[in-house]
Design goal:
Elements lengths: L12 H5 L5 H13 L19 E2 L2 E10 L3 E8 L4 E5 H6 L17
Antiparallel strand pairs: 1-2, 2-3, 3-4
């Protein structure tokens, strides 16, 4: 059996019916079908995330404030203590930015 890279392999049941497969290859194909693997999608352009309204720790995202050259979108956020701050997407999603700084300095957020 010739090696075929997975990216070039185009599989559909109707096209495989017409192939001359050995019994071993046919058994292998049936095993793969039984696995019910998910369909792989193209890794083309991904839709842009909109985090407006999302809560990360003490921060609520209010609006997009701009873009950072390396960290993507920068959002204007409002902390539970009432202060507003800027936070890039990467720091919000990774959990590194959870407040305006009030938690770091020991100030209790106002509820």
């Amino acid at each position: 059996m010739a090696r075929t890279s997975f990216s070039k392999l185009q599989y559909s049941q109707s096209s495989c019916d017409s192939l001359d497969l050995s019994a071993e290859e046919q058994a292998l194909l049936e095993e793969v079908d039984a696995l019910q693997l998910p369909t792989f999608l193209s890794l083309g352009p991904q839709p842009s995330l909109d985090l407006v309204g999302t809560v990360f720790g003490e921060l609520t995202v209010l609006k997009i404030a701009g873009r950072h050259p390396k960290r993507g979108k920068v959002y204007l956020c409002k902390c539970s203590c009432g202060k507003e701050c800027l936070a890039p997407t990467t720091r919000l999603r990774s959990g590194k930015k959870k407040s305006c700084g009030c938690r770091v300095w020991g100030k209790k957020p106002k509820k």
